[in-house]
Amino acid sequence: MRVQAAPILIIAALLATSAAVHASRRADPGLSLVTCKEVAEASVTYRFQLKNTAGHEVLGLGVGYDHDRGETQFAGPHPLRIASPPGWVGRVITLEESDRFQVQWEVEKPGRGLLPGKSLGGFEVVWDQDRPEIAASHWTAIQAGPPPVASARISANQGGLPVPDCRTGSSIVDMPLSATHAMPYRGASS
Shortest CA distance to 109 belongs to which of 156, 182, 59? Predict the structure, then answer.
């Protein structure tokens, strides 16, 4: 039996390429999110601060969407209010014909993103009651370079640790790269 070398070489090249792509997906893009909540009499405010030590500008931030599974994670009543840092706009993105949604912020104009080496706060979501599912949900960053999209769980614990009170401490989560569904940034639709 005669073995053809070309198909074996093609298979070897494909396996090597697949291993290299998989290894690059695990690389740390250098993003972290500080999360805390403030409980008031009639509302609960979740605050987020994004730190960018990656090599690319961040153009968007979202909470409540698992990018790896393509799942919108929040359901039920929408937030009472979404606050944004200057130059950014926040909105609720709903899943068609469903009560499921996510919250997303994006830059209003090019050049207003979060540059490497900088931190940005002012991302806030206000609900009429506590939303413990936020700790188990995901956050997603949209970057101007590879990887274009990275997503991680808000809580470092897979079971979802409670989000701490802003007055007593904050939870810092380093974003591991998850580019299974990586795609170029095209802006949000609502």
Answer: 59
Bond into 147 cis (ω within 30):
yes
Q: Which of 84, 81, 87, 127 is nearest to 108 (CA)?
A: 87
| d(C-alpha 149, C-alpha 27), whole Å | 13
Type and span of the H or E element at 24: helix 5-25
Does residue 113 have a pLDDT over 60?
Answer: yes
Q: What value does the mean pLDDT take over residues 47-69?
A: 91
- Cβ burial of 13 (10 Å; 0-12, 13-18, 19+) is exposed
Give the count of domains, the chain: 1
In this structure, what CATH number is given to the domain that contains residue 110? Answer: 2.60.40
pLDDT at 5: 52
Quick one: which H or E segment has residue 149?
strand 149-153
In a domain, 124, yes or no: yes
With a threshold of 0.85, does the pTM exceed it?
A: no
Instruction: Evaluate whether residue 101 is within a structural domain.
Output: yes
Instruction: Please indicate, yes or no, if residue 180 is contained in any of the structural domains.
Output: no
Of 42 and 9, the one with more pLDDT:
42
- Domain that includes residue 142, residue range: 29-174
Q: Which amino acid is at 125?
A: V
Mean pLDDT across 86-102: 94
